[in-house]
Amino acid sequence: MTLTLPERLSRELAGLREQGLLISPRVLETANRARTRVDGRDVVNLASNNYLGFADHPEIKARAAEYLHTWGAGAGAVRTIAGTLTIHEDFERQLAEFKHTGSALVLGSGFTTNQGVLGTLLQPGDLVVSDELNHASIIDGLRLTKATKKIYRHSDPDDLDRVLAENPTDGLKMVVTDGVFSMDGDIAPLGRLIEVARKHGAVTYVDDAHGSGVLGEAGRGTVHHFGFETAEDVIQVGTLSKAWGVVGGYAAGHADLRQLLINRARPYLFSTAHPPAVVGALSAALELVQRDPSFMERLWDNTRFFKAELARLGFDTMGSQTPITPVLFGEPEAAFEASRRLLDEGVFAVGLGFPTVPRGQARIRNIVTAEHTRDDLEHALTAYERVGRALGVIGG
């Protein structure tokens, strides 16, 4: 008998429940800030990607309102028909200047950017070698291509060298890596990776979703942090939704990259352009981070303090090097229970298990922001100490 849709839905949901992996997202009842409200509780928010506190910044909201009133609620079409407004191209020039690249193009989201750029550049006969811990959007983007796909061990230039040497091709060669890995918070060793890629004539493709706005001068990103922002054999992609506090994705690199993507990238060709308010907010965010270095200074001061105190308490933060600070619990049940207890203590921090992270490495991923005060972080640390001792994760 043919399986019905209700049967498929019921079986899949039952399986998730049995494994303890069924997700029911918390709903924020106020703006996404360092302090917010969840389930009727006022909480310290450690679950957001709002690194610089821009999501509810008054200057950014004012620019969004200005563009809304001047340009309307929506763009009205896809970019290639009638949806490209002056402000779209102005922002892309601003972004290219910020990134120190020959061109930049904005797409609907960071996820679809990976699909669009990888799908445009990679063809049959090409070779793409991807870090084993790359983001799901990279994995899905590569699945859509007909290039030969290989994996190298996480952040291991020697293994990358081996894979490239064992897979010769006359087509395009591409090495793909996150700049900052979203679950562990570690930084890709871009200097070594690019050196190996160049040895084999390969292009390096960096998804800088969690590095843009966090690393490099004025938040220019991981590629800038390592000094490769003007290199024509390096492609930068990322999101405009994390440190920048809004939504969207971008691709930046060689001067001709933008024009090819305009003609071939399917998420660009078949998606309505960003609303004017989004463009205004993004433009204001780039201006603000360059004008006022205190945002990044506070972000990193808070990061260093929080990591040091978690380590002092005895928590395993898994070698994180960035504001992404995982606390390892091992099994998903422990991570989810810790998350529930932290919420009772006034701290919003979300547990993550398989398939988001590998089995046996369930964790709570914490992200401190520029907006957190020392009182916020001390409150969170006190809660972590109580919960960690109660669950036997730390001594005492």
CATH class of the largest domain: Alpha Beta
Note the overall shape: globular
DSSP strand (E) fraction? 15-25%
What's the structural domain tally? 2
Say which CATH homologous superfamily of the largest domain is assigned: Type I PLP-dependent aspartate aminotransferase-like (Major domain)
Q: Which parts are unreliable, with pLDDT below 50 for 5 consecutive residues or more?
A: none
| Major beta sheet summary | 7 strands, mixed
Total strands: the figure is 13
CATH architecture of the largest domain: 3-Layer(aba) Sandwich
Number of helices: 15
EC number: 2.3.1.-
Domain Aminotransferase class I/classII large: 42-382
InterPro entries: Aminotrans_II_pyridoxalP_BS, Aminotransferase_I/II_large, AON_synthase_class-II, AONS_Archaea/Firmicutes, PyrdxlP-dep_Trfase, PyrdxlP-dep_Trfase_major, PyrdxlP-dep_Trfase_small
Enzyme class: transferase
